[in-house]
Amino acid sequence: MAIATAPRLLARVPVQRLARSYATSTPAKAHHHVVVVGAGTAGVTAAAQLQRSAGLEKKDIAIIDPAQTHHYQPGWTLVGSGLKSLSDVQRPLSHVIPEGVKHYPLRVSTFDPENNAVKTSEGVDVSYDYLIVAPGLEINFAGISGLQEALQDPDSQVSSIYSDKTVEQVWRNIQAFKKGPAIFTQPAGIIKCAGAPQKIMWMALSQWQRDGVRDNIDISFATGGPAMFAVPKYSQVLDALRKERKVEGLFQHNLVSVDAKKKVATFKNLAGNSTVEREFGFLHVVPPQKPWDWVAKSKIADSAGWVDVDKSTTQHNTYKNIFSIGDASSLPNSKTAAAITAQVPVMIDNMLASMAGKELKAAYDGYASCPLLTGHNELMLCEFKYGGVPKESFADILGGQETPQAAYYHLNKSIFPFVYWSFFVKGLWYGPSHFVRPETTPSA
Predict the structure, then answer these.
(1) What are the C-alpha distances in Å from 99 to residues 61, 340, 426?
(2) Burial label, 148 (beta-carbon count in 10 A; 0-12, 13-18, 19+)
(3) What is the pLDDT at residue 25?
(4) N or C end of the chain: smaller count of CB under 10 Å?
(5) How much is the average pLDDT of 263-292?
(6) Residue 117's beta-bridge partner residues?
(7) Quick one: pLDDT at residue 273?
(8) Which residues are catalytic?
């Protein structure tokens, strides 16, 4: 939803903060033309674009999410790198709920697609004509033994940019570390923003160079994957950069436990099915990630637990009045905020076509983007679609985007956060096409 680690209890927010979007009392049952589950980037952007759509005659939209805060999650790398404060990358959720959209600060417990209803832990049933499922995914800190205890100990030198509760410790640890082994991990399997685990590594390396201590630190990148990045064009350059900067690559090494007292990280070598222990002085951990249990165990999930949708139309494969985008969906693309800019217009056009009884012609091509920081004043702007095929926006102007550029760095640091709060979540930003709504129907 708005944040993977947000409390799932009923938000106790003063009435005045919800005045424009949420009534002072919640009925036991409610009905809306369109219900959106999740008020993160995908859910809020979908609601905002729907609310602005001339094609939606009945403007009766509701969002269900118990969080009190909305986070610009790509900004957590900036916070962990000392480039932004946490307050720069978050807002009260009530400030980003679109005008005219009803907000229920409730926790979804299950879906009842046969009866077109969403059930909540608070006992409220919200029925719908159409449903958009966009609650994000769960950051599973409990999936690594000893990790939660290590993160609670400020002296452990263990941290993670994958939560607002832990991200500020990352920058403190980077500043404090002067000598010894530093390990940065990436789990096997699906995660959000698959470039982030190494973004923070490159920024730490750059900071240690600035501090004059780089030569005293042995850096290792331990990833459950077989390569630096899933798109070969960018992976090759990143691997060359890794070797040039003397970073050890531990490929197919999946972190399974952390002993903060002994300063030992234990990995499973997926290639040899063996256990590997490594001592650390500094440890940055990216936890494994998975669908929310209440999604995975519902009737709308596929066998892997993701919302079962067509990868082109975003429509559910069984329940035709349900659509899903973002991290919770089964769309086999990279799970990034940039992907939302391409998914939302397609989903809306297909939902409106479904409402009108027409053929669904809009198609999502898997577009995603990863602004991959490789150090201060340099960033590799990775853009690609299904199949790992590059789909670059600036290649004709600045050359191949596998080359890190200062211009991309400043876009990511200064422009993208501004665009996010001012236009993206207000339904006015379309990624590569900027302020112009893209054509969603492929040309013949």
Answers:
(1) 10, 20, 9
(2) middle
(3) 61
(4) C
(5) 97
(6) 112, 127
(7) 87
(8) 193, 370
